[in-house]
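Aim 2 progress update. The chain analyzed this quarter is reproduced below.
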Amino acid sequence: METKTDGLQSLYLNREFSRLQFESRILSLAEDTSLPLLERAKFLAIFGSNLDEFFQIRVAGLKAQIDSKMDTPSIDGLKPESQLQLIHDYVSEQHIRASSIYQKSILPELAENDIRIMKLNELSAKQASDLQDHFERDIFPVLTPLAVDPAHPFPFISNLSLNLAVLLVDRNDRSLRFARVKVPSSLPRLQPIEREHSFVLIEDVIAAHLNMLFPGMKIASQDPFRLTRDAIIDLNLRESEDLREAMESGLLKLRLSSPAVRLEIAEDMAEEVSSLLYAELGLSESDTYCQTSPLDLRHLWEVYQISRPELKSEPWVPKTPRAFSSREGGAKSIFEVLRKQDVLVHHPYESFDASVVAFLNQAADDPNVLAIKHTLYRSSGPETSLFQALARAAAAGKQVVTLVELTARFDESANIEWAQSLERSGVHVVYGLVGLKTHAKITLVVRQDGKRIRRYCHIGTGNYHPVTARIYEDVGLLTASEVIGEDLTNLFNHLTGISQEPSYRKLLVAPHSLRQELIALIHREMGLPDGRIVIKVNNLSDPEIIDELYSASRAGVQIDLIVRSVCGLRPGLPGVSENIRVRSILGGFLEHSRIYRFGAKDRGADYFIGSADLMPRNLTERVETLVPVESLDLQTRIEEILDLNLAESRNAWSLSSDGEWKAITDEPDFCAQETFMNRLSQRMDPRKEPS
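Predicted structure tokens:
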């Protein structure tokens, strides 16, 4: 699809379109018949979930710009109205593709493997009778039909809710009436029938029994629809001096009054029904997406949970890092190890629990530990061992401080719960700096080592989230470096206290100096005959950084960018970016690490890892950290990660100068993730003694 504009703006790619291209790459995995069936179903569910987030935030933001009369163009010169039209056209095509995958590939192959999502007309008489009993007993009591008439205004439709729009004919006066039935999210979307691993969709079950909800009325039509609302929280700190109170108020306002941004309907919905929905929801055809497959493909997550290991990829069991394992098979003192060497951990290949969580557990239980300071952006809840370690440390009298980021998108409610639970456990909870999200992944442990105080640190690329740590690829550095410990101490004091931001000797910190430091490193490579830059991030859209990379390319610097999702840079433009190559890697694990290398191998390079992507929000609107990796052994491991990613071909796409992503098919078959697992298994061979 053409998105180019003329002149200088053609140097850049549209952020929203680039994000949707990433979703198309997800669909490519759902189509890939070399993958196990349930893995492909999972990728189709991920596509649906990702689109939900895209509309709640990105499309909502564009609509807000229009409502505010702000027609500022995007980096590529498109105004909000043009971007919305571009999105509608492209997503409509994606829905056609996703429906085809679902109906022509996923469903038939599930049936071939005795997993069936059935239509009601496929049920036997006994199955239909049993289903009716199940409806009357377990579903009917939960339902609340809501009529629309002068006495009953159009009901509020909650965000991401699945509903049935029902047209009714009054048998007495033949008048046409409208009602809405919300499909309860508290019940499974897939309702089991008597045969194992056979299901019907709950909305089909409800639709077949509407006569019980509307006795005496004739059902003229029933159509499923699903609504998406704006999920951007407007924090009014002028009315509240408490950030948590403001967030709770913002969440309540969001649930009750956020504007609608997308309507999903069945392709054959009656026109009088769609017209009524448009009028009541303030939407139009340009906000509507017609689908032939069931609405909301996230029900495929329920399919993925079925215990059929032969239809999934072989599960990976993360390994304990060799530095932390002993000959006897037990765990070493992490503090003892870090006094001798830095340790790099690569998740999920190496265990998060046996490294980062173990670090916090040992800190909690060690009587010589005096303080623990920790950031929390996303995590999995107060029942985790990570939470228990912090609570245990506080109960033991240690100084424990957790900086909880209340504005982490879609985790706001969970983080409020975290904050309250931590406070009840005696942990000091702070919320960082007003106006800046704290996205840095940092932990500082202060310990009495004999006659001296020593600081132990963890700086990572991923969240302190034990669940996602098993499926997200991330790296982290554990170190007892005095300088890094001092930098982290200064950063935590700045985040929890009142002070001017200090300078840092090793850490690169946003928004303090990260942008300037990265630009300085780019400029350094421009002045050298063997200039070399390799960057692995999730997103690249910052205009200033893109321009600096263009300048480096013009100066002859060889640049490889590994960008999982959004990329606003056009590689391969003559005279501009012909020395820049961009690739995207997907796979069974979500590529999430951020790694920066400046310099050629022979000359010696500088390596950094950390939380920061290359987007304006990361460099200007968030607290982010990058830490240098200075150990030669650990630099070799970072180089291995980058080299294997650059050799990836099985699940890799390259970005061309016309803005199109193309699957790499002209290189030997190679999978980096598979290679990492194989190599680590060989390194962990019990016949090889741990150091």
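Confidence is low (pLDDT under 50) at residues 1-8. The longest strand covers residues 217-229. These observations will guide the mutagenesis experiments scheduled for the next reporting period.
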